[in-house]
Design brief:
The structure holds 2 protein chains of 2 kinds.
Chain A lengths: L4 E3 L2 E4 L5 E6 L6 E7 L5 E8 L2 E4 L8 E4 L6 E5 L8 E8 L8 E2 L3 E5 L1
Parallel strand pairs in A: 2-11
Antiparallel strand pairs in A: 1-3, 3-8, 4-5, 4-9, 5-6, 7-8, 9-10, 9-11
Chain B lengths: L3 E3 L3 E5 L4 E7 L6 E7 L6 E7 L4 E3 L3 E6 L4 E6 L8 E8 L6 E3 L3 E6 L1
Parallel strand pairs in B: 2-11
Antiparallel strand pairs in B: 1-3, 3-8, 4-5, 4-9, 6-7, 7-8, 9-10, 9-11
Classes of the chains: A mainly beta, B mainly beta.
Chain lengths: 114, 112
């Protein structure tokens, strides 16, 4: 039973380019959560999605960032016109139901903006 | 706003010693807490959790203690091993129950 799969593991983008981060939840999980981790920091919540719905996006920056979780396929976190400050590790987690407890994280995508 | 924080950013111990990692939280209504372990280059891994109706919960070599009076919890690791070297985070759900609030993390270094 595969865990939460994120790809790519590492992503390098030049300033101004777009970054697309993918997250495939665990089998049977329909809830996805995205977190960002800056160097030497804890994880910060960005967005919580259910299939085809954004439930809570209170942690998403107002501009350039968007997320989706379509009926088919992985969840996508999109960052447009990346800047150096977007360099971070982005983690996805999934759960079967809407739950507050101990969901499973993927291994993350490390985005570097040069 | 809600916050969850750790007391010490780093902790160095000898192999075989017991380790104690501390965490404080601000929301007295918080009723559930989780400890995660994050190894270099990996995502957070669930270690143990505790609900607010408990003061103590034990797992394999790990114990979590919760003191609701002072809004403090701790993770105790018995007979610490080199494989325990990692960053440890405490976390709690936000009030809406839609996300986890993480502390900054304590880096545990275990020397042989």
């Amino acid at each position: 039973n595969a865990g939460v799969m994120q790809n790519p593991r590492h992503l390098v983008r030049r300033r101004g380019q777009e970054a697309r981060l993918r997250c495939s939840p665990m089998k049977g999980h329909s809830h996805v959560y995205w977190y960002r981790q800056l160097p030497e920091e804890g994880l910060k919540f960005m967005v919580y999605l259910q299939k085809e719905n954004i439930i809570d996006e209170s942690g998403m920056p107002k501009e350039r960032f968007s997320a989706e979780f379509p009926k088919e396929g992985p969840s996508i976190l999109r960052i447009q016109q990346v800047v150096r400050g977007d360099s971070a590790a982005y983690f996805c987690a999934s759960s079967r139901d809407r739950e507050r407890e101990g969901y499973t994280f993927g291994s993350g995508t490390r985005l570097t903006v040069v | 706003g809600e916050s969850v924080g750790l007391h010490l950013p780093t902790l160095s111990v000898q192999e075989g010693d017991n380790s104690i990692i501390n965490c404080a939280y601000s929301n007295s209504a918080s009723d559930y807490f989780i400890w995660y372990k994050q190894e270099s280059g990996k995502g957070p891994q669930f270690i143990i959790d505790i609900r607010s109706n408990m003061d103590k919960r034990q797992g394999q070599r790990v114990t979590v203690l919760l003191n609701k009076t002072v809004k403090h919890l701790s993770l105790q690791i018995a007979a610490t091993q080199p494989g325990d070297s990692a960053v440890y985070f405490c976390a709690a759900p936000n009030q809406a129950g839609t996300a986890l609030i993480f502390g900054k993390g304590t880096t545990l270094s275990v020397s042989s």
